[in-house]
Write a structure and sequence with these properties.
Helix content: under 10%
Distance between the termini: 16 Å
Strand order of the largest sheet: 5-4-3-6
Shape: globular
Structural class: mainly beta
Strand content: 35-45%
Bound molecules: zinc ion
Order of helices and strands: EEEEEE
Radius of gyration: 11 Å
Largest sheet: 4 strands, mixed
Length: 75
């Protein structure tokens, strides 16, 4: 289960989350996944796009279509 270190595009705080192959739809890459920054100071969802090795390619502020899973960050 790869652990990913990144920043939330809403608040720029450092976030950590675990992602697995089953969390994404593998029919196209980069594949979207929703990241829920579940802390009181943020509480927003963004869309992260990952490649076939589950590495983050880019991210969007909004919840974009095509994702199948919402991941919560590791606290
Ligand atoms: Zn945030």
């Amino acid at each position: 289960m790869p652990l990913r270190f990144n920043t939330c595009p809403h608040c720029n705080q450092r976030i950590v989350f675990r992602i697995e192959a089953k969390d994404i739809n593998p029919t196209r890459y980069p594949a979207p996944i929703y990241i829920f920054h579940n802390v009181q100071s943020c509480g927003k969802i963004s869309t992260f796009y990952v490649d076939s090795l589950l590495r983050v390619s880019y991210k969007e502020l909004e919840k974009k279509p095509g994702g199948i899973t919402t991941l919560e960050i590791n606290k």
